[in-house]
Batch of 2 targets.
Target 1
Amino acid sequence: MRIRTDQGYYNTNFPQGINTTSINNQGTMESIQIVLASRPFGLPSSENFRFEKVNLGSLSDQEVLLKSWYISVDPYMRGRMNNVKSYAPSFQVDQPIAGGIVARVIESRSESLAVGDTVFGMLPWSTYNIEKADNLRKVDTQSVPPGYYLGILGMPGLTAYFGMIDIGKPKAGETAVISGAAGAVGIVAGQIAKKQGAYVVGITGSDEKCSLLKEQFGFDEAVNYRTAKIMKKAIASVCPNGIDVYFDNVGGEISDAVIDNLNFHSRIALCGQISLYNSTEIPFGPRISPKLLTRSVLLQGFIVSNYSDRFGEGFSKLTQWVTEGSLKYKETIIYGFNKLPETFLGLFSGKNQGKMIVEIE
Ligand code: NDP
């Protein structure tokens, strides 16, 4: 990885001990940001990121100065590193990576936000940012941990809510299977299916995560896809009545095995395909269409933003469940701005339990 300073570039591995605090250099604000250094081919590496020192300038009217507090890493950001047209615009080479950030207001020229407020925004990966107050949402950190606005009370939670309630529609007595079950979306999706009275099975990548799902999140069964000899059979053995709802976070061979066990009139909420995000070739697999046809399966892909006009409903339901304690959550918190790239890469080897976020300072 290369760091650019006012003196030029120097090479480093993930830098330790970068001074991320703002220095008031000639009366203007400095920040450290992370830019896309190059586009990855396959699995990204540290070489695709670069730390840079930037001068933020000074505040204009209606703007606030923000100190980043928690920064989200999300699998969809991998797609944004490619130069392809998709639902989220590509990151540009030499421009900052951006995503969900919870930040504190440390200076304000807006009437709507005061110094000390905590806000959520889609912002550059930077230790400090200047942003228009209108682009930020003030959040309450008294009753829930601030990182929840990047997870269960943010985009992943809403994704689980709408995917399960609107597409999966599990009914009492049905079987719901969730892949990527121990992650930010999966643990919420499974608990929501449980709330609807379903028998819930999670698929994940370690025995520790399987235990977590059953012991802390109320899943009835869990399958470790890394140790299962034949996935189709491993899934069948814990789903004796077949599968009525499949919440798919991963795609690939795991989904092929789940689809083999689907019931007549089952539903697939096609949420993510993380097992394919680093593919360098067009993946080839079994033709699933005949199974979907003969079992009258409903398959619907969705992007959480499809539901933007109902975010209020989702947010208030999730908030109610979290505050009454009927919906549990877990965060994997990594400390230090310098850890952001490697934390993001850790999503692709299952380093997280629940939502992975980076705490700054
Ligand atoms: P997670 O918190 O679940 O983190 C990713 C997890 O995916 C890892 O912990 C790992 O868990 C698993 N994983 C990584 N690589 C593979 C692989 N090759 N095969 C199987 N599992 C793998 O991420 P999120 O909960 O934030 O996102 C889950 C999915 O939902 C992603 O595909 C994401 O793109 C998608 N998504 C879609 C949205 C939409 O609007 N449709 C919105 C938000 C997310 P393990 O140890 O189990 O392998």
Target 2
Amino acid sequence: MRTLVVGNWKMHGSKSANTELLEALRDAPAPGFPVAVCVPFPYLHQAADLLSGSSVGWGAQNLSEHAQYGAYTGEVSGAMLKDFGCRYVLVGHSERRALYGESDALVAAKTESALAADLIPVLCLGETLDERERAVTESVVERQLTAVHQRIGSEALARCVIAYEPVWAIGTGVTATPAQAQAVHAFIRARLEALCGSAVAAGASILYGGSVKPQNAAELFSQPDIDGGLIGGAALVAGDFLAIVAAAAAS
Ligand code: PEP
């Protein structure tokens, strides 16, 4: 299991606010595992400028399913992200699934494009509140994971980071309890074992996302199958994000 903490800035930031935040992250002591921030496209250049040479990586929050270049107005390819030094890209974030109609098939195609561009996809999975209440969390997460596996196969899936993000916990202030999160993480690891083998499953990074804060991070990260976090709101405040990174380091 590999520790990793990734910030998702969503559609937040400005050149001046970003400078302060990125400099604080850059100047903090390296925790000994990867840390990264996924910023809006226009700020990739700024992230590259300020974070280059530091222990903090950067990435994007979305990419086109189409490789490289072409007549796709408004789209950004994996090759372009790579050109800006990105290491990670989020795929299948629930906001993209819910607000922009991204299907399991499209998420699978985007995951494939990310890998083709030598990016690490952070593949987001998670159930809605209605799905949790109907006790179909496992089948939803399994469906989302299987769609990607069917498209890219086991070797490629082994190169993805997985983020379990219950939709009802994202940006709501309601965090899954450590036991609720651990149960789904263990399920995902078992599915990875079935699809990719035990070595891949044991070495996979399965991040939890959904209202992680400095106050709840340590308990979440102490769970055996939670390897780190995908952090939204708290990634916009340097002190909070660094406290969450410190909690991951201590776990
Ligand atoms: C996210 O955007 O992926 C996320 C987990 O957001 P928050 O931490 O704000 O719930």
